[in-house]
Amino acid sequence: MSSIDIPSHQLLERILSLEIVRVTERAAVAAARLRGLGNEKAADQAAVDAMRRELNNLPIRGTIVIGEGERDEAPMLFIGEKVGRDTGPAMDIAVDPLEGTTLCAKNMPGAIALILDRPRHADMIAAVRKTGAAVTLITDGDVAGVIHTADPEDTGIDIYMGIGGAPEGVLAAAALRCIGGQMQGRLVLDTEEKRQRATHMGIKDLRKKYTMEEMVSGDCLFAATGVTNGSMLKGVKFHPEVIETETVVMRSATGTVRWIRAEHREHGKFYLG
């Protein structure tokens, strides 16, 4: 036998890299229980509630910097909300409890508790195809699409382009910080309301082009659990006495990527919850 002395802050970081998996697992299972029922809001709310409960069990002083919206729009996981046990390291947290709410509600592939096929992309798609490049369209789910560009030999995807959600953009940037890649983004402020909101939040240059490092700075963790089967993760599977989940968790400081397939037993609170 041998023992290794690990500084307390490093030990906590290693623990958190696994504990964060529990957060996305709970959210994914909660949303998966509502797969195919056609109720997007209920599925999203179930994921939000489960994620918030688990975040509040972590030994952190967390602040939601990207969440479900402002306090008056989202009763839980709103921007500025404090989560965790108010001990340990201070952390900024970006969440998307259910990436692909429509996919989950319709029980379609690709929903996770992480170029869209939209009319606004028609001109861009035509220009890309004119160069001779092939275009793969996705109906929902920005984050997985971006992550696929980091492994082009396996996925066949070299570049991701399009207009998607800003929260998903930041989450995708966090993943790329962990596994390598490049990313640039600009806020699409196409209404006066959006421009006023951006100004209110302290953004001075409304046309600024953000780099990956500006979107996500410092050491970061990224975790996502499959809700429905997709190209990146398998969805939640319900069995009589076991629930199966598949999760990917990444860390930028080490470049480590862990794929975690878990079986949750009937007697556990998770299964009953």
Q: Your description of this structure?
A:
The protein has helices spanning 8-32, 40-55, 101-105, 122-130, 142-147, 152-155, 166-179, 192-200, 212-215, 269-272, and strands at 61-66, 82-83, 90-94, 184-185, 210-211, 221-225, 237-238, 242-251, 256-265. Residues 1-7 have low confidence and may be disordered. It is globular. Helix 1 (8-32) packs antiparallel against helix 2. It is built from 10 helices and 9 strands.
Describe the secondary structure blueprint for this structure.
Layout: H1 8-32, H2 40-55, E1 61-66, E2 82-83, E3 90-94, H3 101-105, H4 122-130, H5 142-147, H6 152-155, H7 166-179, E4 184-185, H8 192-200, E5 210-211, H9 212-215, E6 221-225, E7 237-238, E8 242-251, E9 256-265, H10 269-272
Parallel strand pairs: 1-3
Antiparallel strand pairs: 1-2, 4-5, 6-8, 7-8, 8-9
